[in-house]
Amino acid sequence: MENFWQHLQNLTDAQSIISKGGFFLLLVVVFAETGLFFGFFLPGDYLLFMAGLLCASGMFDVNIFTLIISLIVAGILGNYAGYFFGRRTGPLLFSKHESFFFKKRHVVMAEQFYVKYGGMALILGRFFPIIRTFAPIFAGVVKVDIKKFSLYNIIGSVAWVLVLCLSGYFLGRKFPEVRHYVQYIVLGFFVLTSVPLLIAYFKKRTIKQSAG
Predict the structure, then answer these.
(1) How confident is the model over 126-153, as pLDDT tens digits?
(2) HSE toward the beta carbon, residue 35, CA cutoff 13 A
(3) What's the rounded Cα separation, in Å, for the pair 151 and 123?
(4) CA 34, 193, 71, 47 torsion: positive or negative?
């Protein structure tokens, strides 16, 4: 159990990501996770939360307003990168050979999410791992109108950054000692973001078995 917590802490240590690469590495991670197909495994949600938390505790020497604006811009640009990548590759993306960094099922998952929620998938999808990365790519594949995409992109990035970053910031201001329980917070993020995806997976599997 001790090894599990140690591994989890190392894997999700936003403080080390920020201390080693600083402000710019934080922006690069957010950019990559919100639009580059190989960025699906990056720690977007809790990294935003921890950035706000560390900013509140003075461990991250960046003004909260600068932090938020920069993260919003990084999220918007990341989605644009994903959109134009999907628009350029189109159907070829579905015939691409699978690798550690690319799984066809991730694109299919984003497709199903988009079919169900339409343009709102670009807003709601920000709060779900994998969907956050592949929803803008799929929007590019189906050539969603760029003006419509831009609107959802901006709203989604603003909502995502404000909710998570400010949650960490105000929690850190109110309860400074919460930074000592980061691993529990991270575990909670994993559960909250994974449960909806697992429910969708098992629901789809049950439907297929019933149809068969």
Answers:
(1) 888 778 888 898 888 888 899 999 999 9
(2) 25
(3) 10
(4) negative
> What are the angstrom distances between the C-alpha of 72 and each of 83, 154, 165?
17, 8, 10
Specify the residue for token string 């929803």: 135
Q: Which of 51, 24, 48, 29 is nearest to 40 (CA)?
A: 29
Amino acid letter for position 186: V
Do the beta carbons of residue 176 and residue 40 sit within 8 Å? no
Backbone dihedral region of 118: left (phi > 0), alpha (psi from -120 to 50 degrees) or beta?
A: left
pTM: 0.76
- Which of 88, 76, 127, 82 has the alpha carbon at shortest distance from 107? 82
Rounded Cα distance between 162 and 106, Å, is 26
Q: State the number of CA atoms in the 13 A half-sphere of 79 facing the CB.
A: 28
Cα–chain center distance at 57: 24
